[in-house]
Amino acid sequence: MSEGYAAALPANAWNWVAVWRRNYLSWKKIALASMLGNLADPMIYLFGLGTGLGMMVGRVEDASYVAFLAAGMVATSAMTASTFETIYAAYPRMHHQRIWEAILYTQLTLGDIVLGELAWAATKAFLAGTVIAIVAVVVGYAAWPSLLYVLPAIALTGFAFASLAMVVTALAPSYHYFVFYQSLVLTPMLFLSGAVFPVTQLSAPFQQAAHFLPLAHSIDLIRPEMLDRPAGGIALHIGALCLYAVLPFFLSMVLLRRRLMR
Amino acid sequence: MSNVAIDLNGVTKSFGNKLVVNGLSLTVASGECFGLLGPNGAGKSTIARMVLGMTQPDAGKITVLGVPVPAQARLARKGIGVVPQFDNLDLEFTVRENLLVFGRYFGMSTRAIKAVIPSLLEFARLESKADARVGELSGGMKRRLTLARALINDPQLLVMDEPTTGLDPHARHLIWERLRFLLARGKTIILTTHFMEEAERLCDRLCVLEHGRNIAEGSPHALIEEHIGCNVIEIFGGNPQELGSLIRPYVQRIEVSGETLFCYTPDPEQVRVQLRGRAGLRLLERPPNLEDVFLRLTGREMEK
């Protein structure tokens, strides 16, 4: 086990780039459609909920509701983009199209492939989150300098959710199982993490639970910056997201090795 | 570098409680074409995967291109090209892009890959299809592209799992011709097949596998000589049992496969005399081939 597992880990710090470039080349052909697909959803939420609900809600945590929601949507769009890339694009590359199998004929290891896929999913998350953040700045919900802090947080969020989704990908016998992850994990997380309303609205046990959710940590990093508030516990939030990026990565490696390299 | 390309020593592998490879030992020399021959489920593909380090053996030692596998499989794979049983080309890309992307997996620079693409396209006779999407290619073209892809890293060793399964005869002959060209240039090939003709035409040596065990090994010619050694008459169109008892005194051995009676005899004329006058029989006399060896060694309908 240990020897084989070691041989499956990433071989070096740059091999994954080849996998990233493969996905980039494929994405370039459909970039516009893909961007629209990633952005439509959070934009509709932002302006639909933001303006509609915002009128009724008024101010939240001393900001307009749209501005409050914008930070939540930046984090959520990153979560969704990297999750969907991993379960709906990386999964078929691994499973039906046998592209990973072909890559395993080369000097790349399974770890190189997984790392390349995670980096690519994080890239798409970064792209989606960044566009929402820029829109928020342009419309006046945040200041330009805040992006300096928000963009790295978006990338880290993308990595964490790609890594989690990779575990789901490694376990899923077919597409049909992804719906459980979406509706039983991601959707509740959206409401428990303070994306659309403050966590303080939740009952105490749910507030406690929110401390463990990666999306909550991501929002707690992003929102204070965008609303120009003093941020607390930055190291904790970054640390938590890093754990969510790293631990599932190693777990997915164990599962994928069992699945692909018996 | 030694002149041994692949060395398997006492390799065993089971999936669950099904023993797929059973204490297999074999050696493939550099520059030869070595065939793994066997019925479906004999363990051929598993052996190919173990050589690549993609499946872990339960026991035994594997050395490929001088390095231990799977521990250093990555190093070995730098010098290996793979043609899998089922095409796994990248359908989102053109022929040219497939080669480009695959070269990058070997750490080659874009410039280095672009420099070798023309010769690979020429080798695969795909010059006119360079910018076609993979989905537009015929089965034979896809196989040739897979072969070209396997050569992108200029490998010493090619691992091929049933390289011509599912191809029409014309496409198959073209692949065979390409493989002979590679052998002439000094490449080592290990291929799995259940086509006897393929093994006979290409392989310098081969081993016959059954239930994961090596039941015979040698050059096609030597195996034929050793296990058959005389002409064969195939008889169709009668009751094999009845005909068998009629001609038995004049033959070395009889085997029945399906509705065909294979009779191995040093004296074909005697057999013909015995069968003369029987209506509806078709007789075909031919020199022995690997199929006869295979039938003899693994045949489940063997008579004696």
TrEMBL record, chain A:
<keyword id="KW-1133">Transmembrane helix</keyword>
<dbReference type="InterPro" id="IPR051784">
    <property type="entry name" value="Nod_factor_ABC_transporter"/>
</dbReference>
<dbReference type="InterPro" id="IPR005981">
    <property type="entry name" value="ABC_transptNodJ"/>
</dbReference>
<dbReference type="InterPro" id="IPR000412">
    <property type="entry name" value="ABC_2_transport"/>
</dbReference>
<dbReference type="GO" id="GO:0140359">
    <property type="term" value="F:ABC-type transporter activity"/>
</dbReference>
<feature type="transmembrane region" description="Helical">
    <location>
        <begin position="178"/>
        <end position="197"/>
    </location>
</feature>
<feature type="transmembrane region" description="Helical">
    <location>
        <begin position="125"/>
        <end position="144"/>
    </location>
</feature>
<feature type="transmembrane region" description="Helical">
    <location>
        <begin position="234"/>
        <end position="256"/>
    </location>
</feature>
<keyword id="KW-0813">Transport</keyword>
<feature type="transmembrane region" description="Helical">
    <location>
        <begin position="65"/>
        <end position="91"/>
    </location>
</feature>
<feature type="domain" description="ABC transmembrane type-2">
    <location>
        <begin position="33"/>
        <end position="259"/>
    </location>
</feature>
<feature type="transmembrane region" description="Helical">
    <location>
        <begin position="30"/>
        <end position="53"/>
    </location>
</feature>
<dbReference type="GO" id="GO:0015772">
    <property type="term" value="P:oligosaccharide transport"/>
</dbReference>
<dbReference type="InterPro" id="IPR013525">
    <property type="entry name" value="ABC2_TM"/>
</dbReference>
<dbReference type="GO" id="GO:0043190">
    <property type="term" value="C:ATP-binding cassette (ABC) transporter complex"/>
</dbReference>
<comment type="subunit">
    <text>The complex is composed of two ATP-binding proteins (NodI) and two transmembrane proteins (NodJ).</text>
</comment>
<feature type="transmembrane region" description="Helical">
    <location>
        <begin position="150"/>
        <end position="171"/>
    </location>
</feature>
<keyword id="KW-0536">Nodulation</keyword>
<comment type="function">
    <text>Part of the ABC transporter complex NodIJ involved in the export of the nodulation factors (Nod factors), the bacterial signal molecules that induce symbiosis and subsequent nodulation induction. Nod factors are LCO (lipo-chitin oligosaccharide), a modified beta-1,4-linked N-acetylglucosamine oligosaccharide. This subunit encodes the transporter.</text>
</comment>
<comment type="similarity">
    <text>Belongs to the ABC-2 integral membrane protein family. Lipooligosaccharide exporter (TC 3.A.1.102) subfamily.</text>
</comment>
<keyword id="KW-0812">Transmembrane</keyword>
<dbReference type="Pfam" id="PF01061">
    <property type="entry name" value="ABC2_membrane"/>
</dbReference>
<keyword id="KW-0997">Cell inner membrane</keyword>
<dbReference type="InterPro" id="IPR047817">
    <property type="entry name" value="ABC2_TM_bact-type"/>
</dbReference>
<keyword id="KW-1003">Cell membrane</keyword>
<protein>
    <recommendedName>
        <fullName>Nodulation protein J</fullName>
    </recommendedName>
</protein>
<keyword id="KW-0472">Membrane</keyword>
